[in-house]
Amino acid sequence: MLFSDFSDLCTRLEAISGRLEMIDVLQGELPSLSEGELPVFVRFIMGRIFPDWRPEKVGVGPNLLYEGVAYVAGIKKESVVRTINREGDVGRAVEHILTTKEQTSFFTTALELEEVYRDFTYIAGVGGSRSQREKLKVIRRLFANAQPVEGKYLARLLLGELRIGIGEGNIRDAIARAFDVPSVLVEHAYQARNDLGEVALLAREGADALSGVRIELFRPVKMMLAQQGSIGAMLAEHGAVAAEMKYDGSRFQFHKKGGECRIYSRKLEDVTHALPDIVQALVGATKHDVILDGEVIAVRDGKPLPFQFVLRRFRRKHDLDLHIDEITMIPWVFDLLFLDGTTYIDATLSERRAHLESVLGDYIAPQLVSDNTEEVEEFYREALEKGHEGIMIKAPSSPYTPGVRGKNWVKIKPAVDTLDLAVIGAEWGEGRRAKLYGSFLLACRDSGEFIPVSKVATGFSDEMLAIMYDLLKDTVLSTSGKEIVFEPSVVIEVGYAEIQRSPNYSGGYALRFPRFICLREDKSVDDVESLAQIGERYYSQVTSVKP
Amino acid sequence: MLKAAIDADIFRETIDVISALVTECRLQVSDAGIQTRAVDTANVAMVSIEVRPEAFTSFTATTQELGMDIAKMKNIIAMMNKGDLLSLDLPEDGHKLALTFRGYKYSITLLDVNTIRKEPNMPNLDLPGRIILSGNALNSAIKAASVISDKIALGIDPTAGIFYMEAEGDTDQIRLEMGKDELESLSMTEARSLFSLDYLKDMGKVMSRATQVEVLLGNDHPVKFLFDIADGKGHVEYLLAPRIEAD
Predict the structure, then answer these.
(1) Residue B120 domain-assigned?
(2) Burial class (CB in 10 A: 0-12, 13-18, 19+), B87
(3) Which residues of A touch B242 (CB under 8 A)?
(4) Structural domain of residue B20, as residue ranges?
(5) CATH number at residue B98
């Protein structure tokens, strides 16, 4: 497939607003793609480049992209930035620049979809002192050969957002229909393989190939997630529930085969080297090949520390000897996904727990199984007294559903309403904060797009504003006046008093009294709240009677 | 196999010609000398260069293609002094090129040629305008224009009998005219094309050393610069695509 065909298809999809019509179009495209093209197409059309489980990033920020486009068009970078400010969208701006460029070239070569993917893979792999130069070289070549419309989608792919409204759900249904396999099988295979591209290939082979998928060691799966809920509702629905402490730490996934092991963070990054003590603890606690799910917490004098302490360790990749200090790291393991060659994600929580208890000698998170409201509430009080965030309540008969925020896991914590949102914009501060960003525009996600829902300016210390500035300054897409637009990369947790209906934001909701709680460096922008979740919260606050 | 010795300055000249446009190239080596063609990453500028065996103090080679990291060569050249004799040594089927001068011996790993862009075909162009002038004069004009603009027009006005270069910035202008007596040669053919100074600046620096540069021009067409290096024992062609102004 030529990249120009892919771009034309994106243009068509961008103009379609109905979900079913989109799926129809996608479904028509999939069967004709080659073995090599199909997985790339599936990921690209969602605005992703690599399989979800892979740690690679292309690592091309707006600056490098603008520089490459400027070179090809024979104009100054400032002039590229001006066009972006005027168009308000990087993709459209690049398209415009390539349409109107004065600089001619001797020839162009049509870009192939797979060739673009190979180039991205190469860019992601170059490191060291020459990496910026090498990246720029590839970017120049891509844009030199790109037609204007190709430039539009190349730019968006490089910045991680295609903006054509194709989410996982659409492509999953398109795969199911294109290859005539049940959608639930596609979903299930995706949970285990963590790459819709590969799942598309399996779907083409047939339902048997899809249902035969297994979890693989050293290929992390997404973590199962929890909704907010109540003790009463869970007991009413499930009879007995399993309750565990909700640790204020960092989620991890531990893979071990023989003497070899790896630890992955919530973003599925390999953080093994940052956590040698956890490695030692868990390797010593089992002789089996396992994949375990748990939370690392930091403890000083027997008291859990806020999760920033854990994060500091996750981020640190060198100089560990200096850092293994008076703070102790403890892994609390609460789930088992794989044991000695067998995948257990479809087994019930009770079964998984039984296996976990039989193979892991230590570090198993305490669990209470009970059908008694008072007992569970007592467990909750105990958790808070010990300094934990709250408790998790899980349905004992539920399977492990990677990446799904379902009703089977529920978190109970004191009534602080917070949302994790992506920082997509800012305004310069004033007075003492004039050289820093003073307020931030926050967004949730909807079908792969970022939808603004709030601005936040309170709750930041001067130190935190300086940290925010450092994190964001290289992700600036454009500026106009005091307003700055970022390539979304930073997630923060914000508290609020209420969710309101609002015509001021395109999502239709706004936060009342938003305030900054903390940076969520453990979360990627893919993990932020969805518009649907915010809608649910809005309706539950409308229907619930406030005390 | 390559076994050769060359004056460090001639080697520097050769590498500078290539590095004005690309950071790596496929170098063709044979008993006819060395030669390469390359195009910059945006397909806007091309270079073709050949250096004959006579440019070398000694030269023996079998036919082969070498993947040269030009950026790295440039750094190594910075270590050489004027008058140094550089010897180049690549064994049969070797992957490391030895560069020896003043007791230093660099052993440089060659690049895999498959990772380097293929040599472009130089397009056949009909460029009726022809000027010959000194490289120094050409480079000065390019430098003068780049003070106020990022593009320059090169043209021939047959009625006035001049070769001109003009540039326009946001607020400023510059124009330089050269008549027959200031030029080595001038064809009386109407021509005018606009070019990016970003490219010309780098080419100009290299061409400033040439006693004569032949410039071939058309209307909204590429420009071709032809000049000798290595005391006439090497030859270079630069080709630059024009900028076409929207109406």
Answers:
(1) no
(2) middle
(3) 104
(4) 2-114
(5) 3.10.150.10
